[in-house]
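Ticket #175: bound-state structure for shikimate-3-phosphate.
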Amino acid sequence: MNIALTGFMGCGKTSVGKALAELLPEYVRIDLDEYIESMTGRRIPDIFKEDGEQAFRTLEAQALGKILMRQASHIISLGGGTITTEPCRKLIHEHSVCFYLKANSDTLVANLLNDSNVRPLLSPDGSHLAEPQLRARIEQLMSERTHLYESAADHIISTDGLTYEQAAAHIISLL
Ligand code: S3P
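RESOLUTION: The complex was predicted; output attached.
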């Protein structure tokens, strides 16, 4: 069985994945963005800048397919937009139990304020966004994506106010 973690940028997918891996040592932990970077030898902002989002989504689906075809059980921290493409939604649905880490915009703004420059869909030119611009962009993308996170998820975990360890323990209680 594979465990997939979805949710908006900054919701804690990578950190909850690490906390889960501590509790489930028999699982192989994978961060999909890191896997794409090592598969291509390129950084994600560069892939977006040089080749565009569509090319990134194709690489993302290839990477997810490769991971999910392996024999091991994985904990996969997806990218925030992995659920926006049909091939990835199908892979997630067929090969994993998917948890949506649901965070409100205050939590997301707090977690992304220092990091917006490395998220090309928040800041295409790689600059740091001021809080009002960051909040507006998060709310816009969330309104486009919430239904996709919810329909991809087998379980929804509200993570506001939870530590990463508490979110991981909650996930384990649902397995
Ligand atoms: C994206 C989220 C990023 C990364 C890419 C696109 C998105 O991952 O895959 O920048 O479309 O929301 P994180 O959610 O890990 O930041």
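RESOLUTION NOTES: The beta strands are 3-6, 28-31, 74-77, 97-102, 155-158.
TICKET STATUS: resolved
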